[in-house]
Amino acid sequence: MKLYKTILVAFLSGLFATNSMGQTRECLTMQMDSLRRSDHNRAGASQAFETWLASKRYGNSTGRTASITYSIPVVVHVVHNGEPLGEGANISYAQVQSQIEVLNEDFRRKEGTNGFNNDPVGVDTRIEFYLAPIDPLGNVLAEPGIDRIHGGRAEWPTGVVQNPIEFQLKPVTIWDPGRYFNIWTVNFGGFIGRNLLGYAQFPDMSGLEGLNEDEGGALTDGVVIGYPYFGSSEKGDFPSLFAPFDLGRTTTHEVGHWLGLRHIWGDGNCFIDDFVGDTPPANQPTNGCPTEVFSCTVESMFENYMDYTDDACMNIFTEGQRERMEIVLENSPRRANVVEVIVGTTEPIEPVIKVYPNPTAGKVTVNVQSGWMREITLFDTMGSIIREYRLPATVNPVNLNIEGLPDGLYFIVVTGERGEIMGKEKLIIFK
Ligand SMILES: [Zn+2]
How far is CA 200 from CA 158, 263, 283, in A? Predict the structure, then answer.
């Protein structure tokens, strides 16, 4: 409790400090984290996991090969107040797509993009994101990965008491966090002059140092981003995006938290750690876009996504950070369920499918011309989902047993590695 008060005081003083400084970055993850733990009336338990972690860390890092890719289906809840599609908080599908592209460029350290770096400790985390093609009821989404919500209010205050995002919005709009990574875009409000860009919920039971066993539970799991910071102005004409935070790095930063990363300065002085071995210590965040910063007698890694620099000046996740995120994806409840582990290369695919024999009496083979299938969904002519086959990695072709279904016309929809619809074919069952 004493710790909580300390953090709260630090937060309040930070709040007023940023007012006079103008365009600086503010992330509320640590404050929300302490608030959630206060609400849950449970003390942090990270110390209890240290020994466990030591063995876990080494066990995991040797257990996977470099050919593993983690792929995460995303739903973006676009929370608006009745604005026309594409205006204000009701951001366009293209703007959402531009953000997913940025996530993949950054987490994959993709050459030729802002996400590439030549830093010796900079890595491809091999974590990818795609817009989920199907909603929780099995319906194919008209806009993949988008859930538009009329929130009934113009602004979403983020006060530390009875925060309506946590208490009202999230619990009634969240999609099963074991199947979807939930992102909410909102119009933050409530504090004039605030520079709040977003916040995340840390993973539960990751076993990682610096995190707690209970970080908030299933009903609030995900990240919240202010809509003027969601997407990239380099990928389209999105007038609501707000420079210098208009290149999608707020979401990269918050997803880093969602996968278990702390701020690079550890939210403390030179002796407070971010629990990552290959990031240098720092006694405070770095704002703006400097050329060189020294802190704690060493050069700061202000290009790290977990710092507070401007969007244009970030491009590094380190191997130590990658390792931490991998531990979360392998162990943390919901994260381990939502992620799909792909073995092998992940190059784009040609969207051509074959279904045979057709008509069939009970067994069918589905084949894609190239690439791999992730999911096959069987619909009836009314558009209702009949069966859903979530496939293991690197499947092509796949043999499905569809016995037990009545004769008739069906549709097979094949979803590829990145969640894209690879194709749709008619299937006739005739016994
Ligand atoms: Zn943060």
Answer: 13, 12, 22
CB 51 within 8 A of CB 45: no
CATH number of 2-342: 3.40.390.10
**Catalytic residue annotation:** 254
Instruction: Quote the crossing angle between the two packed helices 29-40 and 2-21, to the nearest 10°.
Output: 150
CB 323 within 8 A of CB 68: no
Per domain, the residue ranges of the chain are 2-342, 353-429
Quote the ligand 1 centre to 263 CA distance (angstroms). 6
Q: What percentage of the chain has pLDDT greater than the value 90?
A: 52
Q: Find the 200 Cα to ligand 1 centroid distance in Å.
A: 8
Give the pLDDT of residue 34: 67
The average pLDDT across 196-200 equals 91
Count CB-CB contacts under 10 A for residue 370.
11
Q: Which residue has the higher pLDDT, 299 or 163?
A: 299
Span from the CA of 30 to the centroid of ligand 1 (angstroms): 7
413 DSSP β-pair partners? 377, 424
The two structure tokens encoding residue 187 = 């119009």
Nearest partner of 394 among 372, 419, 416, 370, judged by Cα: 372
- Residue 285 half-sphere exposure toward CB, CA atoms < 13 A: 19
CA of 199 to the centre of ligand 1 (A): 6
Q: Is there a contact between 330 and 260 (Cβ–Cβ < 8 Å)?
A: no
CATH code of 353-429, in short, is 2.60.40.1220
Per-residue DSSP letter, 167: I
Please give the model's pTM, rounded to 2 decimal places. Answer: 0.73
Helix axis angle, 319-331 relative to 50-63, nearest 10°? 100
Question: Look-up: residue for tokens 């299938």?
Answer: 373
* Residue 312 confidence (pLDDT): 97
pLDDT per residue over 220-249, tens digit each?
999 999 999 999 999 999 999 999 999 999
